[in-house]
Amino acid sequence: MRIVPEPGRIEDGKVIVYLDEKRRHTGMDLLAQSEAFMENLRGDRISMIFQEPNAALNPTMSIGDQIGESFLFHQKEKLFATILRDLESEGCRTLFPLKQFQQAVYRLGARQPDALILNLLDRIPILKHWQRKLKKEARQRAVDIIRKLGLSNPEQIVDQYPHNLSGGMKQRIVIAIALACSPVLLIADEATSNLDVTIQAQILELLRRLKQEVISSILLITHDLGVVAETCDRVGVMYAGNLCEVADVKDLFQNPLHPYTRALLDAVPKFSMQDDLKSIDGHVPNLVTPPSGCRFHPRCVHAMAVCREAFPDMTEIGRNHLVACYWAAARK
To answer: Which of 213, 218, 181, 188 is closest to 43 using CA atoms?
Structure first.
C-alpha cells in the first residue's frame, strides 16, 4: 500500500497486483505508480484491517460517517447514479424546477463526480442540499454492509460512536470500512489478535465467507499458526524481516524445510506432549544492526560457515515449495 512512514523506505523489488479479478491482463507494479494513483487505490481496490480497532477508528465520528467516507471518496460516481435512478423512477422529470435542477446535478455527478461546478454549488448554502441525498445514500450503504457482517440493529449502530461498541463489534466495523468498496485485495494485520476465542472464530469464519463471495484475495498477517492452518491456502514464513520459506499450507505443516519453521512448529503445544514445552534458543536479533548472512544463523542448530557470510537465495525444493536456507538446499 506504500504507507511506510519516514525514515523507512522501500529499497528494491516489485509489488505486483492483478486489479482485474479474472487476470485478463498482466499485473501492475504498485511501486512504479504515482502517489495520486495510490490514493485512489487505497481503500478502494486494496484495503487493510489494522491490528488495533481502537487506533483505527476515529472516536469523534459516528460509525456511519466512518464507513460512509469510503463510499463518498471512492464511489461518489455510483452514489450519484443511484440517486439519479431513484429520482427518475419517481417521475421527477416532470415535476418542479427544483427537482429538475436536482436531476441535472446528479446527472453531472454520475458522469463527473469531481466536476468544478459541483464544488462551487457546495459553497452556496441554498444550493448545497444535493449533498444531503449523497450522504443519506452513503449512510444506507453503511447500514447494509453492517447488516451483512452479522451485527444486529445496524440502523442504531451507524449513529453510535466507537466507545459505545464492544471489542468484537469494533473489529467488525473496521472490517466493514475495509470492505465498503469491495476490494480485490484485503490485507488483514493481526485481525483477531486482541479478541477472545469465540469472537476470533466468528471473525475468521466471516473472512472465509467474504473470500468466497466478495474478495479475490486476502493477505493475512498473523503469529498464530492455528489460524494459518485453518484459514490460509499458501504461507510465507518470515524471520527478522526476511522471507525464509514459502509453500502451500498443507505442504508447509507436513514438510517444513527451514530450521526456523521447524522450530516454530516444534514450539506449538500438543496434547500428546510429555516433556516440557520446546523453545527457540537465543534472542531475537537487533534489526538496526542485524546479523550477517542468514539472520537466523545465531540461533540455528544447523548453521554452517556459509550461513554467516551471505544470505541464501530462495530455492525451489519440491513443487511450489521455496526455502532460503543453505542447509535445506544441501539436503535436497
So the answer is: 181
Please give the distance of CA 133 from its chain centroid, rounded to a whole number: 30
**Which distant-in-sequence residues (6+ apart) come within 8 Å of 63 by Cβ?**
142, 146, 157, 158, 159, 160, 161, 162, 165, 173
Long-range residue pairs from 102-107, CB within 8 A, at least 24 positions apart, any chain: 102/130, 102/133, 105/130, 106/80, 106/81, 106/130, 106/133, 107/80
> What are the tens digits of pLDDT across the range 121-145?
666 665 556 677 788 888 999 999 8
CA-CA distance, 179 to 156, in Å (whole number)? 20
Q: Which three cell numbers stand for residue 27?
A: 499485473
DSSP-derived secondary structure for 57-104: S-TTS-HHHHHHHHHHHH-HHHHHHHHHHHHHHTTGGGS-HHHHHHHH
pTM for the model: 0.81
Sign for the CA dihedral angle at 45, 46, 49, 50 comes to negative
With bands split at pLDDT 50, 70 and 90, how would you rate the model's confidence at 268? confident
Task: Compare 231 and 237 and report the one with higher pLDDT.
Answer: 237
Site of grid cell 476490494: 183
Alpha-carbon torsion angle 217, 228, 316, 32, nearest 10: 40
Residue written as grid cell 453492517: 146
C-alpha cell belonging to residue 106: 446528479
Domains and CATH numbers, the chain: 37-60+167-232 (3.40.50.300), 66-142 (no CATH), 237-269+283-331 (no CATH)
What is the band of 271 on the pLDDT scale with cuts at 50, 70, 90? confident
Hey, which residues does 238 pair with through a beta bridge?
243
